[in-house]
Amino acid sequence: MQMLTAGQWARQQFGSVELGDKRRTERAVKLAESAALAATASLPGMCGVWKNTKAAYRLLDRKPVTFESLSQTHRRLTLESAANCAVVLHVSDTTTLSFAYGAAADLGPTGSSGRGRGMLLHSTLALDVSRGSDAPAQVLGLSAQQLWARQTSSAPAVESSKWAMAIEAVGTPPPGSRWVHVGDCESDCWEALEACRSRQMGFALRACQDRRVIAGHAAAGVTAPEGETTTLFELLKRQPMLGGKSLWVRGRKDREARWAKLAVCAVPVTLLSPKNWSDKPHRKDRPRPQAIACWAVRVWEIDPPAGEDPIEWVILTDEPATDLETALKVMFWYSCRWLIEEYHKCLKTGCRAEDRQLETADRLGALLGMLTVVAVRLLQLKHQARCDPQRPAQQVAPKQHVKVLAAHRGLDENMTVRQFWREVAQMGGFLARKSDGDPGWLTLWRGWQKLDLLVAGAEVGRTMRR
């Protein structure tokens, strides 16, 4: 994936958005370029002068300029890229955007108490995993996204429907391409499974419900006698271990990063629809669905460190997990889910999405339509450093950026991708000690912004010498 300059990237992502007027589209491109160069800055900080700031406020105030209209081109480009890949994961998750007092007045309640004010964002990130489990996933972009405030008419009638809505928005994969929807425990709902089946999309969803199942794949429409059914978790606990693998587990506030020794087992199952199907208001008028045949993969940690909660995942998938290799592939697919969490961090920290203060939710939503795309660019910075690290940097990064970095740091222009990004990260505060591992996205982002300024300065100097 070629890294573009801020101007090239803004033109690619926003140059064809439909905003009712070509001048608005041009203004959107300019604002996107400014946001790419200074994502953490306030709107006046991005724009630099009052004239440009006023134009940005006017743009966000126009009715055709919405979250949907600004982000739709990016999603279309992502799906076009995904259509050319052999295996793509569409990883979904929801985050809450909570805004400080003084932001838009027409936001919805957030938090368990409902006292917060903000919006909900459900994002689907497309990841190319065509190179298999031993290669890092490549971030293609957002394939679907939903933004809503709880009290507005745009909010889904039932928030569990967001999973099915995301799958419908991604659509059916083209011939020759395998698309797999990946979600955490919250995605374990019948609507998501049905949507994957209707769209010929694969799935690897973490189970949280101990569903009624039949061991093996029963015939379509089967209704098994009570004695032949069991529960999903009980069935898996009886399965023999196929094998295992070590997996690097990221650190969190309540957990240190570590290598975890994991065991895996798998079994074919037939999921029976919930007994209380008609108890939910949105299902009352819908007939009870047929059973779903799939596979269940259990992943659990062996000998976890003292005081640490052991890892355990139960993953429902349509991938025939008949052997260790396939079961480990499903485990790898689910382990890629952390990238959607990284994406939301990029949006909240790298783009300071929750610090924005605009007078209405519509204006705020329009700005988020741009920042959600900027956050993808930020995330891609980090993961480009992991894809083809020995490739010449000039084949991936803009040549002028490589030349300016080499001159600034006293390096050879023929550096590798890995060398290039580590040098960029050091400009952002990365120490590059032997014990430091790979740089994080925040130091990469800071270093890239500084390099952008150096390149801009070099361009000004070249113009002055003419």
Task: Reconstruct the topology from this structure.
Layout: H1 6-14, H2 22-37, H3 43-47, H4 50-61, H5 67-82, E1 87-98, E2 108-110, E3 116-128, E4 138-148, H6 161-170, E5 178-183, H7 190-198, E6 202-206, E7 212-215, E8 230-231, H8 232-237, E9 243-249, E10 258-271, E11 292-301, E12 312-317, H9 324-335, H10 338-350, H11 361-384, H12 399-409, H13 417-427, H14 441-465
Parallel strand pairs: 1-5, 5-6
Antiparallel strand pairs: 1-3, 2-3, 3-4, 6-12, 7-8, 7-10, 9-10, 10-11, 11-12
Helix pairs in contact: 1-2, 5-11, 6-7, 10-11, 11-14, 12-14, 13-14
Can you describe this structure?
With 466 residues, the protein is an alpha+beta fold. 38% of the residues lie in helices and 20% in strands. The protein has 14 helices and twelve strands. Strands 1, 2, 3, 4, 5, 6, 7, 8, 9, 10, 11 and 12 form a twelve-stranded mixed beta sheet that branches. A hairpin with an 8-residue loop joins β9 and β10. α5 packs parallel to α11. The protein starts with 5 loop residues before the first helix and ends with a helix. 40% of the residues are buried. About 1% of the residues have low confidence.
Annotation keywords:
single chain; alpha+beta; 20% strand
In short:
The protein has 466 residues and is an alpha+beta fold.
Mean pLDDT: 89
Structural class, by secondary structure, is alpha+beta
Largest sheet: 12 strands, mixed
Global morphology:
globular
Number of helical elements? 14
Unreliable sequence segments: 152-156
Helix content: 25-40%
What is the C-alpha radius of gyration, as a whole number of Å? 24 Å
Strand content: 15-25%
The count of strands amounts to 12
- Note the run of SSEs as H and E: HHHHHEEEEHEHEEEHEEEEHHHHHH
Cα distance spanning the termini:
34 Å
